[in-house]
Amino acid sequence: MPLQEQLQLLLWGGLSLAVLELEAPATAAPPTGSAASAVATARGGCDGVDVLPLAGLGGPGEEGSTETAAAATAAVMEAWATRRGLAWPGEVLVCSCAGEEAGRLRQQLQLRPALAEEVAGAGAPGGGELLSFPSGEEEEWRGLRLALAHINLQRAATEAAAAGGSPAQHSAPGAQGGAKAIASAEAGLEAVHGAESGAGAARSLGGGGGGGLVVAGYVMKASRERDLAREGLLNLVPQDGLVFAPLAASLPLERQLPFHVLLHKASDELELGPGGAPAFSARMLALADFCRQHPAVSLVDPLEAAAKVINRTELARVCDSLSQLHVEDAPPGAEPAPGADGAGGVHDAPGEEPAGGRTYALRAPRSTTVASFEAEEVAAAVARLGCPAPYIVKPVVACGTPDSHSMALVLWPEALVGLQLPLPAVVQEFVNHDARIYKAYVAGDEVFHTVRPSIPNVPRCRAAAQQLAPNGVLSFDSLKSLPTSLPTSLPASLPTSPPVPPAKRPRDHPAPPPAAVPSQLLLERVAAHLRGALGLSLFGFDVVVASVEEAGGNGPAGASEVDGRRAGGPSAAQGAAVECVVVDVNYFPSYRGAPRAPELFRKAVLGAHAGQQGRQEGRAADRRDDTR
Questions:
Q1: How far apart are alpha carbons 500 and 504 in whole angstroms?
Q2: Which cofactor does it need (predicted)?
Q3: Helices assigned H by DSSP within 272-374
Q4: Hey, which bits of 98-213 come out as E strands?
């Protein structure tokens, strides 16, 4: 990963960056070399990096300049630290390379020996240095971020003990202090990495009493790390009693302890097992084995839970139970769900179910699995589905392989024959939904959502469908983008489905009216159901609302009508329910665009950790009881 991207990860992690331009002594040659040029170039490509010129110390044999340069340096550093909400030098650590330039910088900064002892006690690397400046290798940068987490952990323990707490208790939840800056020197160009304290940040990690700073080590692809860091989800400075750090794949996990949570994105690293079914990679299986051997480390989430969403055939079986849910919400005209305006929203606290009002009919799309696209198997699959085209066809492997997001929108049944997609595959009913999809994010007990463009309504009339794709197939990659526009415009004489009153056609109502927007209560009920069925704390699901003309025309009999037996209340008299279809579930989403996502994500990780440790303690207590 280029140096610029490494610096960007530090910025996204809540750190501040500054380059110290150290003036060379008059008797020394100007610093040269690729490292200096690389740091300078990387700084220019990152917004928010400060430049701090420092007067240099005298060269060998020169006298009288050391105290003057040190005083000037202290003034510059203190002013910068104050602007960034930091305390100099207490919240600044030095990261430097070996050599004459590094020695001059350490002398000029006049670092406190006590700080060096704290860092050494935390296991930070570097012979005599507080931290070693990475030479450019990816693993060294990961080690730097992990060392920062260990430093914060050690400082938390020290300050907790000084405040009267146990040294083993690192900080109270909510504490946000700690090691806030790292200075690095390389060929005359020095980088200082510090953390902004934020409004109201606590200066002490002790926090008085129980609770500890939790280190969440994570293992995931670099691209996923960037996505999450960009959203502010991987804070490198303690927030709400939690700090994140990457774990190096090249080192045994035992050598990277202490960490308390092992966070993974195992669904990104899948292999094909027997019969083309997805299986976790050896690296992910090793993580689970490590946590079994170290029960004090929580695996978030357990692989057996994540396994239920990586196989679309198995996921369909889980989602079939959604039809058991019955949800009534506030009457039309009541305040819309958060995010109903398309901006997304967050529900702060579960509310009670309102009496009467809108009724929602929930279900999953009908689907079946095929091992080939030969004519005989296609005919049997269409018969099992029992619903008309169009269909969405997807590989059984839901993620983590190059072809897992290769999909096709098939406009009539015969077009399934000879389809070119990875096998085995899932053939799924496509529900027209007015080109709007609701992406719900679940972080522990919290549920929030955004609204995104989706696939436009697809015609059921064969002549109209042929205008879109003469061969009846529209292929796309769902990872890159859903096809939010269709290839051609339909002639005005061809309706998109069997005739309906003109006032209810999608072109007159391109988006559901406010009353048809999924309510917060509905999303919470779906999330609770899936949370229980899957055993996950970090997941997302996609919901569509069947278009006005679609309801009752493509789903199972009775899906759009709620009679008195099912509604069990006054709302049954209102007739048709809003038909909501959960079309996908995924593990550990990016939470892109979701407000308050960092805060709620931290809460979910801490909650999952506490829950797992509580269950561990309960099992241990049961074993003790059994031995008495």
A1: 7
A2: Mg(2+)
A3: 282-293, 303-306, 312-319
A4: 131-132, 181-186, 189-195
Q: Which amino acid is at 304?
A: E
Please measure the distance between the N-terminal and C-terminal CA atoms of the chain and give it in whole angstroms: 56
Contact yes or no for 551/576 (Cβ under 8 A): yes
Non-local CB neighbours of 154 within 8 Å, separated by 6+ positions: 118, 119, 121, 122
Q: What share of the chain is helix, strand, coil (3-state, %, to 5)?
A: 35, 20, 45
Could you tell me which of 83, 86, 13 has the C-alpha nearest to residue 239?
13
Instruction: Name the CA radius of gyration of the chain, rounded.
Output: 29
Summarize pLDDT for 78-116 with one digit per residue, the tens: 888 889 888 887 776 666 655 566 666 666 666 543 333
pLDDT at 405 over 90: no
Which segments within 354-461 are labelled E, that is strand? 359-363, 367-370, 391-395, 406-410, 425-429, 436-443, 446-453
Measured in degrees and rounded to the nearest 5, phi and psi for residue 417 equal -65, 125
Is residue 93 within 8 A of residue 119, CB to CB? The reply is yes
Amino acid 341: pLDDT: 39
Count helices and strands (H / E) in the chain. 15, 24
Which residues have a Cβ under 8 Å from the Cβ of 516 and sit 6 or more positions away? 545, 578
> What is the Cα–Cα distance from 389 to 546, expressed in whole angstroms?
15
Burial per residue of 467-505, b for 16 or more beta-carbon CB atoms within 10 angstroms, e otherwise: bbbeebbbebeeeeebbeebeeebeeeebbbeebeeeeb
Span 458-466, average pLDDT: 89
- Which two tokens mark 2? 């280029």
One-letter-per-residue 3-state SS of 510-536: CCCCHHHCCCHHHHHHHHHHHHHHHCC
* pLDDT score at 189: 24
Tell me the per-residue pLDDT of 205-228, one tens digit each, with 9 for 90 and over.
222 223 489 999 999 999 999 999
pLDDT tens digits, 41-69: 555 556 778 888 877 655 444 545 667 77
Averaged confidence pLDDT in the chain: 74
DSSP letter assigned to residue 249:
T
Cβ contacts of 245 within 8 Å, gap of 6 or more: 145, 146, 148, 149, 150, 215, 216, 217, 218, 236, 259
Is the pTM higher than 0.85? The answer reads no
Q: Give percent above pLDDT 70 in the chain.
A: 66
Chain-centroid distance, C-alpha 128: 37
In angstroms, the Cα distances linking 624 to 295, 461, 611, 612, 619 are: 16, 68, 20, 19, 9
Residue range 420-438: average pLDDT?
94
